């Protein structure tokens, strides 16, 4: 059976009708992984109990018990989300050998919902990168063209879904790390509103930006997974009580009268004209269905990347302080404690991670705090105000997800700033804490193009509605590599 | 703005990172490029603008200060992650040097 293009919805139908068992389904996916993963490097490790997990679901279903909304659905997990008993390393040498002592809240919720945890997916070193090339385990390749990057940092999750190794995977998004790889791999990827999904058990990079989100084939699938993982968690003080947690069932596609804003700052020269063309064709589709299109302005957009590259490294330098070689992971002993710290960290962190830690230490250090960090927090307020203001006049904001399609492996590795610019359209949503989703909207040079929908805080429903409508009238999301 | 060699070494020390002599020039160059880029914020007047301190618009999340204990499996696994231990205790080098025993 070819499982490569199955959605969660398809899988649920097959399992519920008894056409296939969870065990044989898992077997098909494992076969695909075996055949393709060596080349793609999407998964770093496959759980040894995949078949056992699936069998347990079959037994439950046979006994007439509730198997959960994801009962028997295989899922890939980004290598920075803790699963008890799995080695979880953020694809960083410094966490080599670190075994998850407990389940992240999202993992607990997936297990309760009957999902089959297949394995851990590759990512950039400590989630720092936009191409999955900085991983300690080597780069992941884009299934659409194996000479290209899959995007990052959740590139392993995106490549795994695009190649049909799993129907869905979790990623984490600090500045675009779910949406940008989803875009470069032709998938649907959601960064929820900050606070919607618990960060407990996610290895922290920049705590005021990080959110876990799904990468899937369809909007409907992404909504379903969100409904499982979202909601307040006493273990994450920044997670919030949600007014409605059953949005997956609510997705309808009537978008008549919805107001869509096109920010003029995002449709500038410098983006690939083919991308602009595809995105504008999508806008026409929305118009046909009765949506209103408005030009809007996000006046501080040009400062977003600079503010992000002050605040994110500052938070990361603080968060990564815990990686000291003593309590977990890599250890390199020195003459004294200070030397042990410095050796462990100097050897264990990759070059990009070291750069960001140093940037953060610098902008937080005495004499520079006001000029850099404080200033960036003020600019973050201005950026958030831009979004608040714009989203009073329109329901959603529509932009390209990435200024380019997937680029060649190695192309941007020596130029950190060029790599940072890959996130120029995605980071603002993290700064403003609003939800954003990328969906596929075309191809150029046989590589997928994505568009981004940005909504009001906790307005994921509007994004799903728009995205589900678009996927009901187009078939970009049904295309698959090969 | 270009970072001096001394500044790079100072930041590395603050960051508890041992960096090699031959890598310093590259850090100077790459960190300076990024700092030059982020300096564009200085052109923006932010007088009187509040800092965005909390990403979630909530503050003061309290809970009772009660010992809840820990699942035995979680406790054991946490301890097994230690690089060096004595029994169940994390063993580290002395924090203060030059102690007279």
List the main descriptive attributes of the protein structure presented here.
A: 482 residues, alpha/beta, eleven-stranded mixed sheet, B: 101 residues, mainly alpha, Histone, subunit A, two-stranded antiparallel ribbon
Structure characterization notes:
- The complex is a heterodimer of chains A (482) and B (101).
- By secondary structure, chain A is α/β, with parallel strands linked by helices.
- Chain A has 16 helices and 11 strands.
- Chain A has an 11-stranded mixed beta sheet with strand order 1-3-2-4-6-5-10-11-9-7-8.
- The mean pLDDT of chain A is 95.
- Chain B has a domain at 5-43: Histone, subunit A (Orthogonal Bundle).
- Chain B is built from 3 helices and 2 strands.
- In chain B, strand 1 and strand 2 (89-90) form a beta hairpin.
- Chain B is flat.
- The termini of chain B are far apart.
- The interface between A and B is large, with 71 and 51 residues.
Give a summary of the structure in a few sentences.
The complex is a heterodimer of chains A (482) and B (101). Chain A has 482 residues and is α/β, with parallel strands linked by helices.
Topology:
The complex is a heterodimer of chains A (482) and B (101).
Chain A: H1 8-16, H2 22-40, E1 43-46, H3 50-62, E2 74-78, H4 105-112, E3 116-121, H5 155-162, E4 168-173, H6 179-184, E5 188-191, E6 211-216, H7 219-229, H8 247-250, E7 259-263, H9 273-288, E8 292-296, H10 304-319, H11 337-348, H12 351-364, H13 370-393, E9 396-400, H14 416-421, H15 427-432, E10 436-444, E11 447-454, H16 460-473
Parallel strand pairs in A: 2-3, 2-4, 7-8, 7-9
Antiparallel strand pairs in A: 1-3, 4-6, 5-6, 5-10, 9-11, 10-11
Chain B: H1 5-14, H2 24-38, H3 72-80, E1 85-86, E2 89-90
Antiparallel strand pairs in B: 1-2
């Amino acid at each position: 059976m070819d499982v490569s293009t199955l959605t969660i919805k398809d899988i649920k139908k097959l399992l519920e009708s008894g056409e296939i068992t969870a065990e044989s389904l898992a077997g098909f996916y494992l076969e695909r992984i075996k055949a393709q993963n060596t080349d793609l490097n999407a998964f770093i490790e496959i759980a040894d109990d995949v078949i056992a997990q699936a069998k347990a679901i079959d037994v439950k279903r046979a006994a007439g018990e509730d198997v959960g909304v994801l009962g028997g659905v295989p899922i890939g997990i980004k290598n920075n989300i803790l699963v008890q008993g799995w080695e979880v390393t953020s694809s960083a040498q410094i966490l080599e050998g670190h075994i998850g002592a407990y389940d992240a809240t999202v993992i607990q919720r997936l297990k309760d919902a009957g999902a089959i945890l297949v394995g851990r997916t590759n990512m950039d070193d400590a989630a720092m990168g936009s191409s999955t090339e900085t991983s300690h385990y080597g780069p992941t390749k884009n299934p659409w063209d194996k000479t290209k990057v899959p995007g990052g940092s959740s590139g392993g999750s995106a490549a795994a879904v695009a190649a049909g190794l799993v129907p869905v995977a979790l990623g984490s998004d600090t500045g675009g790390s779910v949406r940008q790889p989803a875009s470069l791999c032709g998938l649907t990827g959601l960064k929820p509103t900050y606070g919607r999904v618990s960060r407990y058990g996610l290895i922290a990079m920049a705590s005021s930006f990080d959110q876990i989100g799904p990468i899937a084939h369809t909007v409907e699938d992404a909504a379903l997974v969100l409904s499982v993982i979202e909601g307040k968690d006493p273990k994450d003080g920044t997670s919030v009580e949600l007014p409605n947690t059953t949005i997956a069932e609510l997705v309808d596609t009537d978008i008549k009268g919805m107001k869509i804003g096109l920010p003029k700052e995002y449709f500038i020269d410098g983006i690939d004209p083919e991308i602009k063309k595809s995105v504008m064709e999508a806008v026409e589709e929305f118009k046909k269905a009765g949506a209103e299109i408005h030009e809007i302005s996000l006046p501080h957009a040009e400062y977003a990347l600079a503010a992000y590259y002050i605040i994110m490294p500052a938070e990361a330098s603080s968060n990564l302080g815990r990686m000291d070689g003593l309590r977990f992971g890599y250890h390199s002993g020195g003459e004294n404690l200070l030397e042990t710290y410095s050796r462990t960290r100097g050897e264990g962190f990759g070059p990009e991670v070291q750069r960001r830690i140093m940037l953060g230490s610098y902008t937080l250090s005495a004499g520079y705090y006001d000029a850099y960090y404080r200033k960036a927090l003020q600019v973050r307020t201005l950026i958030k105000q831009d979004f608040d203001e714009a989203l009073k006049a329109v329901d959603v904001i529509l932009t390209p997800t990435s200024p380019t399609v997937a680029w060649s492996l190695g192309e941007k590795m020596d130029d950190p700033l060029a790599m940072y610019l890959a996130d120029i359209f995605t980071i603002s949503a993290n700064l403003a804490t609003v939800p954003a989703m990328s969906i596929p909207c075309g191809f150029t040079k046989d590589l997928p193009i994505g568009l981004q929908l940005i909504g009001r805080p906790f307005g994921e429903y509007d994004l799903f509605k728009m995205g589900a409508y678009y996927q009901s009238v187009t078939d970009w999301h049904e295309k698959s590599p090969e | 703005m270009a970072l001096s060699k001394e500044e790079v070494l100072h930041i590395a020390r603050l960051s508890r990172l041992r960096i090699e002599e031959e890598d310093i020039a590259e850090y100077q160059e790459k960190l300076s490029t990024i700092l030059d880029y982020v300096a564009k914020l200085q052109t923006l007047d932010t007088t009187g603008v509040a800092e965005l301190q909390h990403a979630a618009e909530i503050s003061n999340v309290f809970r009772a200060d009660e010992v809840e204990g820990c699942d035995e499996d979680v406790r054991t696994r946490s301890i097994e992650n230690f690089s060096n231990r004595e029994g169940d205790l994390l063993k580290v080098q002395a924090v203060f040097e030059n102690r007279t025993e």
